[in-house]
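Key result, reporting period 2: structure in, sequence out.
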């Protein structure tokens, strides 16, 4: 077993990600007794430690509420180094603040364009020695930049010390999807092209860019969620059984299936932009960046040959929800003379991944009466745990322990970029759509019977 880290350093301590995710996660870790190392924030804000503590308090007040005992424990461990990432003295100060720590974990909660600078300085100052690094997504903007970032990381940190974060893998619902697949024997006989007609994955957001227009206009839906989060969901649905539940076996299985996904054909992609996006602060007046994407994926494997995987993601859609619908094929004939359903069959498996968690089996059952007529039903298993561990709490804890299970490997990152690279930029037209709708009508060219989840 690897030795746990003995300090946590997070760059970007005054930023948006730290405010929304990291400080609440750190308080939760303290509440569970999982935070027993110094926590050192680093940023260039001309702040002092008291100002960072005030920021931390505001963060947890807005995102989950203060647990007085746990928050006091967090504050007791909190340190701060203020300085420019290009200035060597910043990292000399960090080395002094680390004191006797020999295995620090460095979390890069900063833009990817700064990764190389920070990692190089960590190496020069000796802060990287014996340590680990967590790289926040997006990991590059395309295949070439991802490979360049990886080279920069590996110049200072060995591969076992690199943790590429995709917080979706830390979501309880995504882990439950993987567990459900491989812990229930009844699924395996039907989990293939002989019984499955299609798979749909939708990540809908009712809100827009929420004041992040400048950042979003450099990213778009394909880079923001399709290339990483949603391809990881595809991998969990389609991967073969891993050799074991250990980290490398899971990562091997995910990497193999991602490498089997064919690069996207522009003919199987529809991009959209909601009306009003161009008026958002920070958005270029002539922006061609998509706020909606619908794609059809093909997996070149024996199990999935001929089974389309339809993926949609978008902002300003009718609901905020992430859901998977695995549509099963129709029975070979209708014994009771009922007409075939207009769109496929009621037999399906539905995974709701957020904001609530559900697993549902779609079936037909007979209506009461003399006639052999049926109706569609869902058998639903729902689970709500108010004390559920949130993704960043789980992932930070795992990284501190040296557990790679829920982190992506470079071969998986490169496979994901190979899938989307043919359709990045302005490779396909962009279509307007009205806020509150399910995207442009052109998306029906990809799939004629989209599954539109409801808020329930």
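The corresponding designed sequence is given below.
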């Amino acid at each position: 077993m690897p030795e746990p880290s003995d300090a946590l350093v997070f760059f970007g301590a005054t930023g948006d990600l730290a405010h929304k995710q990291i400080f609440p996660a750190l308080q939760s870790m303290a509440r569970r007794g999982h935070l027993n190392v110094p926590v050192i924030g680093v940023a260039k804000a001309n702040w002092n430690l008291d100002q960072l503590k005030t920021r931390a308090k505001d963060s947890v007040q807005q995102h989950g509420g203060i647990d007085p005992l746990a928050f006091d424990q967090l504050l007791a461990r909190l340190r701060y180094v203020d300085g420019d990432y290009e200035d060597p003295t910043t990292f000399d100060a960090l080395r002094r603040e680390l004191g006797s720590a020999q295995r620090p974990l460095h979390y890069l909660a900063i833009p990817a364009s700064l990764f190389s600078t920070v990692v190089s300085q960590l190496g020069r100052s000796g802060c990287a020695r014996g340590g680990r690094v967590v790289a926040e997504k997006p990991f590059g903007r395309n295949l070439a930049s991802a490979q360049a970032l990886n080279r920069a990381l590996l110049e200072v940190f060995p591969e076992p010390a690199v943790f590429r974060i995709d917080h979706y893998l830390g979501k309880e619902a995504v882990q439950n999807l993987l567990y459900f697949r491989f812990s229930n024997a009844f699924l395996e006989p039907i989990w293939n092209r002989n019984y499955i007609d299609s798979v749909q994955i939708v990540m809908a957001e009712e809100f827009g860019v929420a004041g992040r227009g400048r950042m979003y206009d450099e990213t778009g839906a394909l880079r923001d969620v399709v290339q990483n989060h949603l391809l990881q969901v595809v991998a969990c649905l389609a991967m073969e059984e891993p050799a074991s539940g250990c980290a490398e076996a899971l990562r091997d299985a995910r990497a193999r299936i991602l490498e089997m996904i064919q690069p996207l054909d522009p003919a199987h992609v529809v991009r959209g932009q909601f009306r009003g996006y161009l008026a958002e602060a920070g958005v270029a007046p002539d922006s061609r960046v998509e706020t909606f994407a619908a794609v059809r994926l093909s997996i070149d494997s024996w199990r999935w040959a001929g089974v389309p995987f339809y993926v949609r993601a978008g902002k300003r859609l009718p609901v905020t929800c992430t859901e998977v619908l695995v549509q099963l094929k129709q029975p070979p004939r209708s014994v009771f003379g009922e007409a075939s359903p207009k769109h496929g069959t009621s037999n399906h498996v539905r995974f709701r991944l957020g904001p609530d968690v559900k697993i549902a089996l779609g079936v037909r059952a007979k209506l009461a009466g003399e006639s052999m007529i049926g109706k569609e039903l869902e058998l639903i298993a729902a689970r709500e745990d108010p004390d559920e561990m949130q993704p960043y709490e789980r992932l930070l804890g795992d990284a501190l322990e040296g557990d790679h299970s829920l982190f992506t490997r470079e071969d998986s990152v490169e496979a994901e970029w190979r899938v989307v690279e043919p359709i990045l930029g302005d490779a396909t037209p962009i279509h307007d759509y009205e806020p509150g709708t399910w995207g442009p009508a052109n998306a029906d060219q990809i799939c004629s019977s989209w599954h539109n989840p409801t808020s329930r």
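The domain at 169-445 is CATH 3.30.360.10 (Dihydrodipicolinate Reductase; domain 2). The longest strand covers residues 196-205. This case is discussed further under Risks and Mitigation.
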